[in-house]
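Handoff note, outgoing to incoming analyst
You'll be picking up this chain. Sequence as last confirmed:
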Amino acid sequence: MSIASYFQTDEEQLNAAIKMANSSLFSQSYWVSGNKKIKQLTDEGYAPAQVVYADMLIHHNNSVAARARAHQYYQLAAAQNYQPAIDKLSILQLANTR
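Most recent structure output, in case you need it:
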């Protein structure tokens, strides 16, 4: 995957990483590789990856710390005017007011 990623856009890399992570049924190494690439794109500041990674944090580890970290990633993506992140923050804000 790493060689191909040099020739792919961030969006193509993210889609490939999501497919790989979703193929974890076949091998745990697919999950690890896909997750690692999503995290790399997240750390590089790619807003769609930040939202995907935040979603993963919430869905796979719904602890207080994971939710707080996910919120930070949503905020980073929202600061780039990425609408899905803005929507997620609105939903979280509504949930916290109940």
